[in-house]
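Box S2. Input/output pair 1.
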Amino acid sequence: METLTSKKYKKASFPVEGMSCASCASSIESMLKAQEGVQEANVNFAGKTLQVAYEPSRISPVQLQATVKEIGFDLLIEKQTEEEIEARQAAALAELKRKTIAAAILAFPVFVLGMFFHDTFSWGNWAMLILTAPVLLWAGQRFFVNAWLQARHGRANMDTLVALSTGIAFIFSFFNTVYPHFFMSRGLMPHVYYEAVAVIIAFILLGKYLEENAKNRSSSAIKKLMGLQPKTVRVLRDGAEAEIKIEEVQVGDRVLLLPGDRVPVDGEVAYGASYLDESMLSGEPLPVQKQIGDAVFAGTINQKGSLQLIAQKTGGETMLAHIIKMVQEAQGSKAPVQKLVDKIAGIFVPVVLGIAILTLITWLVLGGEAYLTEALLSTISVLVIACPCALGLATPTAIMVGVGRGAENGILIKDAESLERAHQTNAVILDKTGTITLGKPAVTDVIWGDGITEQELLERVFYSIEAQSEHPIAQAIYTFYKEAGVNAVQPNYFNSLTGLGIEAEFEGIRYFAGNEKLLKQYNVQLPDALLQAAETLQQDAKTVIFFGNTKQALAVFAVSDPIKPTAAEGIKAMLDAGLEVYMLTGDNKQTAAAVARQVGIKQYQAELLPNDKAAFVKKLQNEGKSVAMVGDGINDAQALATADISIAMGHGTDIAMDVAGITLMRSDLTQVATAVKLSRATVQTIHQNLFWAFFYNVICIPVAAGVLFPFTGFLLNPMIAGAAMALSSVSVVTNSLRLRARKI
């Protein structure tokens, strides 16, 4: 979908196919930015999308696509539906899965033969050649194709490392299988390294599959947001009711809304009264009463009555459409995370190639033809020992253990990027409703007046009165007494008093349930003790209901959204971990202040809409903070997508969990600090792994090149080089496994 950004440039978003690592995204960006007529190009690796601002008079989408294809990727410039994009991604993932399974099946016997029976069978080398060839040429084809396309433009990435090491090892092994006498005639064993080739490709393909599978699961958030809008709408035109498609609704149409319907447009109530569930916007659990003249918004749900609306905003102009657009932009505008390994690989590959060439030349120049064998063996040893196995395992093994450790603690981490980025967090924003509180109004206090007898009977009366009401507060009281097993009685008389409460009659006695104004209007005596209790409850932002008869007030009931038992503990854990904590809510200032005071939060803002929350996230980011957003509802989706790291509560909406990178399954705020600490420990392990992987190369590559030969006569055999390579991988994996026992 294209939008005009200026008279000169257009901004468009296109799906990208074929990316295998973060450096792929960087390559696409740099290639497009170098094209005349391109103002800006940002690739989101996780979202597999390109956002580009270009000058249509100088470059077209077809030319953009051709540029991307030059380096081995593809740009889908034709309009694609969500279903078509998902189908293409599913097909690509299925193909990768087939290759991964095939590579693993073929690699296993090669590994067994190469490691334990390499001298046992005369036909062993030929068997390993036959099994390894399809692993290299079919399952691992993508590495060689991508490496070649990158090399054409003077670039290198992990695909280059994989292609070089496995390709050289395979060619060397193939030569020794077909013509073993070359080395045997010179008194040397013709070693083969098929097992290294097959196992490396199988493991790297497995890592790619797991990564792609995790990324594909994150694409359904926008689809679910779009599902909040009905496909058809009932309207009144020319005095007759008609059902039309949502796209055909026009501003000024009179829209009919029945109980249970989802509001299709932004508009104004023209007839009727009802309660609407606006939690997708405000996050607040209590439905909002709507009368003639009140504004309503697309995506909200009509609960009780029937309404007629005048459509004021339709299609892409509604607040729901605005939320969808903002989530899309927030997801797409995040700069792709340039993985540390890919950055280093760009330098590491040419350095290793240079060392290998220098090794060959040095041996030939200093030793002459007599040292041709040593020159070849030393060059091969350099390339084999520089195999990216340890380098490739450094990050994914730590991530796998970190993700597993998180799952054990009820912390579901969507992808590696989320786990890596969480360690930078220094500010946490908490939504109030459903995050700090339970998100469901409930009776919290019942205070009876002095000297009141027959409380059991009076509770049945009060329960019976509230059971007749459709008000959301009454529903909380109804649920409270129903769960307590109280039996209702049928009133002789019942009347709902708008804005005040309810009056009812039981066995000749009239009772009232509602606000203080109701009781005063009927001259009901209000004892000082109950008035003082009500004032205290209201200071804690609780809704107070008085219950009385014609003579006096009998009791005070309080309804509120209770704070979660572990909320204060979780917030303290965040503060102890050095995190700044903020609370945002769509609720009123008095309620926000009361909740913040009870849980120990000093910084909060109230009466915010979804875009206000996202704006606050950006404000903190502009101040240099790395922001984590914790929420549970549709109204939080925009802020979650904007934040550096997004955390959803496990009981929340599917949309919040889809947008979020981390989901807390127990909806326990103590897990937020645990997730940040886990990320810090995982990133520390990754850095340790990378250090040891490169330290190993710094020490072993010169030895493989033969620097010790002039002094000690020692020359590293390629077989020993292979063993050293395996040892480095084992050390990296072992270090990653230490995360399991680490205290978080």
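Box S3. Input/output pair 2.
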Amino acid sequence: MSDSFASLDEEARLRALAALAAHDWLSASPDPALAHIVELVARLLGAPAAFVSLVDKDRQVFHAKVGIGLCETARDIAFCDRTIAQDGVLVVLDASRDPRFQDNPLVTGDPFIRFYAGAPLRTADGHAIGTLCLASPEARTVFTEADRRTLSDLARLALDRLELRRLEVARCALQARFEHMAATSPDAIICADSCGQITVWSAAAERLFGYTVPEALNRPVALILPERMRGGNEGDLRRMARFDGGLSGRTVELIACHRNGDEFPIELSLSTWHEDGKAAFGAIVRDVRQRRAVEDRLFRLAHLDALTELPNRAVLRGRIEAAISGGRAAAVLMIDLDGFKEINDAHGHGVGDAVLQTAARRLRISVSPDSIAARFGGDEFAVVLPGVGDPCAAVSTAEAAIAALSEPYDIEGLVLRVGASVGVALSPAHGAREEDLVICADAALYRAKADGRGRCRLFTPDMREAAQRDRACRDGLRRAVERGEFVLHYQPQVRLSDGALTGAEALIRWQHPELGLLAPAAFLTVLDEGPDAARIGDWVLRTACAQARAWRDGGLPSFRIGVNLCVAQFRRGDLVERVASALTETGLPASALELEITETIILRNDPGVVTALRDLRRLDVGIAFDDYGTGYASLSLLKRFPLTRLKIDRSFVNGLCEDPQDAAVVRAVIELSRSFNLEVIAEGIETDEQRRRLLAKGCQEAQGYLFGRPMAADAFAAHYGVGNCRADGRARGLFGDQRVDRELRLKASRHNQTDHI
């Protein structure tokens, strides 16, 4: 290697090698045009041999040649290695006399070279990738300046041909990659020329539109449009074909047409370019039918009630806000179906759903087209009347809805009757916010139901006071959760035969900072409908279990605790895990816990409720049905649900000694419990006569003022001499043991359940 080449730094040498690799000529067949240039060099400059030499890292390759049989030589003996290290032409008149080459095998052996002249082939970025050379076994005495210019000019011509070949190789590689991507892409690829004639039609385009490649090529790109969209106005696709430039780089959606006539939506990602000075364009085409279906399904899930296909509560609120924006008049109707629960209980979930669907259709028809009917939840509906500020007009619409909803329902051959009650609120008269109007309309609805059902009531100020009380209660409950203002009181449960203490029912109280100790009647309804119901229910469960364990350890080994459950605890879906964790955390035996459920829970017709209760029974937890006989619960529920005890409601016990009908109900409940092998307990015992009569009828246990009022844990322990065994009954334990909560959250996540805490 020459000294000058050796002086090149490593970075430049690597760039030179990269330039050689980019041309991909070392192993390619000679270009005919380049071979012609080599012949021209030999003829014009009078040499028997001429060649193009490409210099690789360790060798030189004769790519085009004449008059020489070699294909390549080692780089360290190549004359061209010296040539690429300088800017101008290298001339060796007599190599046998030149100290640089006189010992070179190419000079002393075969082929026998005496004369050599070479011009470097240097790219625009300075990389000398090879040489254009001529050689002869005869020495020369002169190589003129004109000869040098001729060789340099022909070298530039050879270099231009090399660059053209490089560009052609690159274009072919790019075309091959494009064709491979087009053939394997799941999206259709379509290209067209400046006249809008199809030039590329991929395999995916064949599958998407039904036309083969021969059938599609050279046809107008409007081939993919429905017939009615072709011609004078072909929309965005035709604009794209005219190359107005406005759509390049954008994504548009169009209606496309399959060869068989089926129409479907597509999405096109558009691009334009120029080929040989003429515009061309292409599109990646996607079938968006499935995406549209998913979007539609998600929209319906987010905005429509799945059962009735009416707008849901979230949409209703948005429509109310839109209707009253800017202080505009609007009316809100809250509608509740009267007697629906009885039908749902008597005939099952399927019939109940059919009634709700029919009611939704009737409601849509009964209101004006510009009104919005929505399902608020359960058997409650709502209607928004934009622009209606006249109470007479709103009441008239409400009465029309009542009439429509009260018509008989023919469901699966059953003729069923359901009534409707309606509450009406007006904006801005009754409120300027969505929340205020809903509260006022709901308050009016409660008044309508309290007044006998099947009627409409317009909101009045006295209802506002009740609504404000509810709101104040909700706000206070939120603060009570944060400040830990809840406590538990315990009402003793005794054995009627001897008055022995058997257990207690845990009853929540609110230690209000201003109003003092509040009983559940003052806040429980609002709490049950609020977001913290399940959280507070969990606190009650843990606190009661801890207290029961303390009292069992303190001298009441057979003590049983009763805990009321709420709907929200079932709705969350992890009740069994939370009960099990509370028992584990406190060490209370499962048999010492009795969970009390109400008709509201049982009549939900939710299979998950039955499953949860059965799982709890497998843990040996008792299940008591509270207030049996006061509502719509049927005898079949006693068979379906895994109950262990019936609780006779205090309303029947109060009239036990004076009212024969109440006495008959009490006797019937006791007989039922005996028939179903259930225990029975009576609530609200206040007199010894009531105690004696219940005992005579076979009632085993009771609770009531005769035996003790609900009392704080300290008072309870003192009354029964349990000793200093008080567990913390304040709501400081509302959030429970963090370790247990973490375990519950992990369990919930494994079951894909939502924790509302």
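Caption for Box S3: The domain at 304-459 is CATH 3.30.70.270 (Alpha-Beta Plaits). The CA atoms of residues 652 and 665 lie 7 Å apart.
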